[in-house]
C-alpha cells in the first residue's frame, strides 16, 4: 500500500481516527486500580462515547486544490467504582439509583454472588468438620 498515492480525504480521515485511538483506550473505561494503605482496592469504571466526522472536496478535476475538515469528540462519564476488600467485591454506583426492575436486578448481581460464594464456603467448612 506504500506505492498507492493517498488522496487528501483519506489522509484526513486516517489522521482523525488515529487521534481518536490516542484519546480512547481500554484504560479510559476500566481505570487503573488504586490500592489504599488499609488494603482496599478501588477500580474506576467509566462510559466512553466518541464520534467523528470528516469531509472534503477536490475543487474540480485537479488534485492540487483540496478543501476539507475533520472533527472528533470524546465524552467520558464516571459510572461506578469496584471496591475490593478482603476478597469481597462491591459495586459503588456514581449515578442515580436504578429505577427499572432490570436495572435493580443488575445492581444486585454482585451482592447475590457474594452471598452464594459465602454459602458455598460455609457448606465446605461444615463438610470438612464432619
Give a verbal description of the structure.
The protein has two domains: 1-95, no CATH class; 96-130. Strands 1-2-3-4 form a four-stranded antiparallel β-sheet. Strand 3 (67-85) and strand 4 form a beta hairpin. It has helices at residues 8-23, 26-29, 101-129, and strands at 34-35, 41-57, 67-85, 88-93. Helix content is 38%, strand content 34%.
Can you give keywords for this protein?
130 residues; alpha+beta; 34% strand; elongated
What is the structure about, briefly put?
The protein has 130 residues and is an alpha+beta fold.
Q: How would a textbook summarize the main sheet?
A: 4 strands, antiparallel
Number of domains: 2
Q: What amount of the residues lies in strands? A: 25-35%
Average pLDDT, all residues: 77
How would you write the strand order of the largest sheet? 1-2-3-4
Question: How many β-strand runs?
Answer: 4
Structural class of the helices, strands and pairings? alpha+beta
- End-to-end CA span: 71 Å
Q: What is the succession of H and E elements?
A: HHEEEEH
Q: Helical content, roughly?
A: 25-40%
Q: What shape does the CA trace take?
A: elongated
Detail the poorly predicted runs: none
| Overall radius of gyration | 25 Å
What is the count of DSSP helices, taking H or I runs of 4+ residues? 3
